[in-house]
Structure formats: structure tokens, C-alpha cells
Amino acid sequence: MTNEAYKILIVDDEELNLKMLSRFLSCDQYTLYTAANGKEALELARSISPDLVLLDVMMPELDGAETCRILKNTADTSQIPVIMLTAHPDKDAKLRCLRAGANDFLAKPVDTVELQLRVSNLLDFKRHAETRKWNTLLEQSKATLEAKNRELEAALHEIERAQAQIVQQEKMASIGQIAAGVAHEINNPVGYIMSNLGSLQKYFSRLTGFIEIQSGMITDKELQGQLAAQRKSNKLDLIIADTANLITESIDGAERIKKIVQDLKGFSRSDDNAKNPADIIAGIESTLNIIWNELKYKVKLNKEYGAIPLTRCNIGQLNQVFMNLIVNAGHAIELQGEITIRIRHEGGNIFVSIADTGSGIDPDKLEKIFEPFFTTKEIGKGTGLGLSIANDIVRKHNGDITVASEKGKGTEFTVRLPVIE
Ligand SMILES: Nc1ncnc2c1ncn2[C@@H]1O[C@H](COP(=O)(O)OP(=O)(O)OP(=O)(O)O)[C@@H](O)[C@H]1O
Ligand SMILES: [Mg+2]
To answer: What is the CATH code for 6-110?
Structure first.
């Protein structure tokens, strides 16, 4: 704006005055426009938006005061400064002009220097006012932009967090699906291995019974001696005893496989969001079955289970919560320690607490552990999502997770789940 010439509109019904005023103001900084009456002045003001209007008071039809009033009452032209020119400045006329919104007066005949000074002062004032207005607008837009930026950053962070959680949950779900598929495949062969072992046990006992009867029927001493020698050299007594043991152990092993397969099937049912009545203790037990291998060499496990009712929940997802908490507890124990799982029913809630005698958590880190990606584990060992996902799942069950920890002594996480029938 400062590089452009100011537009000045001069309004007077006398040709001579227009010429004179134009001459006085003629310079590079001003572009001058003239109008011979109020009506023309209003039209021109609307189309060129002048920076200042010099307005003669005494004009036929629409006089200066009225023209000024209309200019000041029209939104597009209300900010334009107006200098009134009057030959006989009586008080009434002055007051009319001031009421109409005039900014300044000049007495006719006009003094050149006074005219130039008043014009340049008003233009300066207008420019400062505009600069102030722009500055305020700029400040406001800056503040709005900054607020929007903060909102966008928060939204981005939230999207990243949600995305990571989805990826993690998808991963869990697909691991679950694979586990369920494998479990299903193993289930059948384990079934017939168990049934065959059962038959084998029965057949073997009949076979050994038959051999005993057969041996008892032989009365000939010589034959008895030969039979005993054969029996001894072939270590038959040992074989018979061992075979029975081998079959019992195999049945035991197959039963354990069957149990793990069942647990895996239950554990992997976390992909759907359906909530059904389920037994939290059975969920924890099947979770322990799956992760116990990882813990058994360094952890002594204590279980303090009270009686709890069934509750409507997504047991697959809750198993993930218990798994994350128990695995974390195991990680916190460096060499040897204890994990105590307490389960109780109180005031319409089921409380599951998992306490460890591990490293404990620094007080200043305690607030952060539920944040996604917060981990103190080495790169590749922890993603820092375990607790944030656990927290989300428990919240979706209208419950909460609390934590108490003492550095060097251990940590206890407590999951509260309202019982839903
Ligand atoms: N029982 C605990 N004892 C001590 N620190 C713990 C315990 N549980 C959690 N923490 C701290 O909280 C952090 C966050 O745990 P979280 O389960 O969210 O992530 P993580 O175990 O590091 O990684 P992952 O995503 O593999 O679970 C851990 O890195 C650890 O510092
Ligand atoms: Mg973890």
C-alpha cells in the first residue's frame, strides 16, 4: 500500500475550486479524482475506494454534510477520512458535519500548506490505523494457526498411536489365527494318538496277563528252566515293566499336548469383539500354560485365587492383558524371584493383581508406562505397546488398571473388572 499513490477524491460544485485544489495537491504520491456533486462523489467513492475525501459543504441537492453521512454509513466507505471545506464555518454547519462523521475542517479560501498538512496527517493516521488493524489481524491469525497446528499435531499423534495399536492388534489377531489353525490341525492327530495309546495299554495288559497264564501252565521242569533263561536273556521282565511305564508317560504327554492345544484355541479367540460369559481364572490358567515355559527357570509362582463369578467379557482379549502383565513381571525379574497372582471378587468387581519381586519402576517413569511406545527395554526387545493395549482393552471392559511400585523391591499391577452378568 505504501508504494502505491494515495487516491484522493475532491468534491466541489465549482469548477474553479476543483482545479485549484487539484493543483495544490498535485504530486507523485497522490492520484486525484474529482466529482462535481454529492451523487457523483458517492458513486466514485464506491468504485475507486479513495484513501481520503475532500468535501465541499455547500453544494446543491445533496450537500456536503449529507454526502459525508452517507459515506460514513455505508460499509465500504465508512473508513475513508473526510475533510470538509467550508467558506462560512458557522457553528451549526460544523456540528452537522461532525455528526455526519467528518474528520477535519478546512476554511475557504484554502491555505495551500494547511491543506497539504491536514491531508498528509489524515493519510498518515489512516495508514497507522490500518497497520494496527492488520497487525491485530495477523496476531489473531497467528494465534489461530498455532492453535490449529497444535490440534493437528495432537491429531497426528493420536492417529500414529491408533495405527500402531491396530498393527499390533492385527498382529496379535493373525498370530491368534495361526495358533488356532495349528491347534486345530494338532487336535485330530493328538486325539487318535491318545485313543491308540489307550488301546495299546489295554492290549498290553491283556498280553502280559496271557503270558503269565501261559508260563503258569508249563509244568515240565526242563521247559520251565529254558523259558526262564530266555526270559532273562531277553530282559523280558524289564521290558514288560518299562513298556507299561512308557505307555503311561506317553498318555500323560499326549494329554498335556491336548490341554495346550485347547488353551491355544481359547487364547486366540481375541479377534472378534463379542463378549460372552467367561471364567477369568480359567483364562489366566490357560495364559500361564502358554507362557510358563518362558518363566519357569527364574520364577516361583504363587496363586491366591478366591471364588469369582463368571463375567461377560472378551476372554481372548483379557488373556492378552494378563499375558502382557505376567510377561512384564517376568522381564522385571533378572535372576530369581516370585510372581504372585491374586484374584478376588469384591463389591461387584473382579480384581486380578499380578505382583513381582523384580526391579520396580522409577517414580518419575510411573506415569509414562501406559503411554504407547514407552519402553525401557532394548531396541528389538520391547515395543512399549503392551501396557497401552492392556489399558485400552480393560477400559473397553469398563474397568481400570492401577500400579504400585517400589524401586528395587517390585511392582504390583491390579486389574479391576466390573462383573457383568
Ligand atoms: N512389572 C514391571 N516391573 C518393572 N517395570 C515394568 C513392569 N511392567 C512394565 N514396566 C515398565 O513399563 C514399560 C512399558 O511396558 P509395556 O509392556 O508397555 O512395554 P514393553 O514391555 O517395554 O514392550 P512390549 O510392547 O513388548 O510389551 C516397560 O518397558 C518397563 O520399563
Ligand atoms: Mg510389555
So the answer is: 3.40.50.2300
